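User: I'm curious whether this sequence folds into something compact or stays loose and floppy. Could you predict its structure so I can see for myself?
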Amino acid sequence: MSPELITLNKMIDQAFDHKSWHGTNLKGSIKGITAREAAWRPNREGHNIWEIVVHSAYWKYAVVGRLLSEKRGSFPIKGSNWFVRPSAGMSEAEWKTDLRLLLDLHAKLKRVISELTSKDLAMIAPGSKVRNVDLLTGIAAHDLYHAGQIQLLKRLHSSSGKLPV
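Assistant: Here's the prediction. I'll summarize afterward.
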């Protein structure tokens, strides 16, 4: 693996589920969260933790699709970008299903990255406007951005004493 890909992998790992100096990553931000906690929203217009998790899964799916030049439309939930969650109730099983979707799509992204070459990084996939390297640095930044949002939502909700910080 090229030095560039090693660095990109490290960035993506630290943003998602590996220890790093910057603090909580995306997977760490949702550790121990229940369906009820994930469904809490600060106001009617604001997204909740659950929606951020599915949104993050969607963008991992989108990046994989662009890297592989796949046709869009195979995301398991109807729609794109933001998905109203919970969609019908607040079952732990539904929450766990959406968490599994995030984990599975992250694993798929990592498998796709493992097959890239440094030459692939400079390419622009059909249907994309940015180079593959930008997609990969972007997905790492996206994970960290939303990890921060989740941490903020947990702090906003902490006055109830129900969410761990």
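Summary: The two ends are 37 Å apart (CA to CA). The chain has one domain: 3-160.
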